[in-house]
Amino acid sequence: MSKIGDHAVVLGAGMAGMAVARVLSDAYERVTIIERDELADNAENRRGVPQGRHVHLLLARGGYILDELFPGFLDELVQAGARAAHNLTDLYFSIGGHLLSQENRSGDGTYLASRPFLEAHVRRRLRAIKNITILEKCDVAGLIADTPGRVDGVRIHHRDRAEPEALSADVVVDAMGRAGRTPLWLKELGFQPAPEEKLPIDLVYASQLLRLPPDIKVEKVIGIGAVPGRPTGLAMFAYENNTWLASAQGYRGHHPPSTWDGILDFVRDFAPAHIMEALKQAEPLANVTTHHFPANQRRRYERLKQFPEGLLVFGDAICSYNPLYAQGMTVAMLQALALRDCLQRGTDNLARRFFRAAAKPIDVAWQLNIGADLAIPEVPGPRPLPLRMINKYVRRVQAAAGQDPALSEQFLRVTSLMDPPTTLMRPWVLWRAFTSRAGR
Q: Domain boundary at 268, 293, 318, which?
């Protein structure tokens, strides 16, 4: 792609910020990333990513996009110690009370690495790109908007300097997560804020880093979801350096304890025997950490009739999902591809075109997340007839998938955002779901 501008500024060096910076580096002469944290060279947790101490999955679609943006990235990640799950035998997924088929059948890869490990490897590749600069330990003081209807740059404050610095930019991207400041900035600039949608779920998860004895054999990816009457669950993933991360979760006041012994008691009634035995024999490597996720939240920027030129919003700053479904990073990668396609057509009306393009993958993940959360009676929210019908059909597919590896694979391709949800309505899926004894 030929360069279409001089300078782009990205606010936030998380996974979304790094993905958008990589795309912008092909279109702008210079890209500057502003990050409030100090960024270590190795895989360390940081204050700005509190959820980094909890379970993360790089779904197949997100992994393939990262490998496209940074060629050879997935092989490099695995060679450095990350794990990969390519077979149904690697997975223990109990969804809606139904265990998906574990037949020996290969499929798309799910990549298993802690959030700090994954970020460190993306950051290393990003630092190698000559026209990208990362400014650490900097706070965003506000936007520069000297031209009516346009953002001209950003003011930042270096923590080791007394005076703020003004950075002019052709485009500023808010990739600061749920705490992104664009709603406030729009009001300051005289624009209407984006309409918001929320589904409160009051989710708390408590996570423990572990090491398992070498003779313990369990699946690499373990997910036991909530069911009606039991709004609790468990996730346990194999990570780098022979470590595991276990996370107990609970909705709407059914929250897990913040001690390891308490977590063991919390999951005892629904964890299968072989997983429970692995947990009991595991060696805790750190303290239990907890995180509260109050609500799914979406800001509908694509519905605004007016939006300042020179400003974009990206990643969780647009939409943040229930982290249990592990789709946030992958949706950010899909937004990066949407932006790349928009930039190939120039910068005219860029914000409007990008928000409309990004809304497509956001819509898919939003509907999947909302539908799954509202399948739990303890989560309050409207359940119109179409949603109830869809959830009833999805339960049938999940039940049939326990005995049908083809259905399991197709269901996982939808939840990993490889295929659209409409593929679950293909004739062969309908036939298997409705003729399966388990589905009935």
A: 293
Residues 42 and 185 in one domain: yes
| pLDDT tier at 192, thresholds 50, 70, 90 | very high
Number of Cβ atoms within 10 Å of the Cβ of 400? 24
Which CATH number goes with the domain that contains 274? 3.30.9.10
Lowest mean pLDDT among 51-65, 343-357, 366-380: 51-65
Task: Confirm if 319 and 174 have CB atoms less than 8 A apart.
Answer: no
CA atoms of 39 and 129, how far apart (whole Å): 17
Residues 256 and 222 in one domain: yes
123 and 39 in one domain? yes
**In total, how many domains does the chain have?**
3
pTM of the model: 0.94
Does residue 397 share a domain with residue 252?
Answer: no
Name every residue whose Cβ is closer than 8 Å to that of residue 400 and which is 6 or more positions away in sequence. 407, 432, 433, 436, 438, 439
C-beta separation of 354 from 304 below 8 A: no
Lowest-confidence region among 105-114, 206-215, 358-367: 105-114
Rounded to 5 degrees, what are φ and ψ at 394? -60, -40
Asked whether residue 377 is assigned to any structural domain, the reply reads: no
Q: Is residue 227 part of a domain?
A: yes
Note down the domain range covering 234.
Answer: 69-113+199-293
Residues 127 and 103 in one domain: no
- Choice among 104-108, 235-239, 373-377 with the minimum mean pLDDT: 104-108
Query: Which of 318, 337, 371 is the last residue in one of the domains?
Result: 371
Q: Is residue 247 part of a domain?
A: yes
Is residue 266, in this structure, part of any structural domain at all?
Answer: yes
Residue 56's pLDDT band (boundaries 50, 70, 90)? confident
3-state SS, 223-248, equals: EECCECCECEEEEEEECHHHCEEEEE
Average pLDDT, the chain: 93
CA distances from 137 to 22, 44, 48, 370, 381 (A): 21, 16, 11, 36, 40
Report, as an integer, the average pLDDT of 299-321: 95
| pLDDT value of position 45 | 73
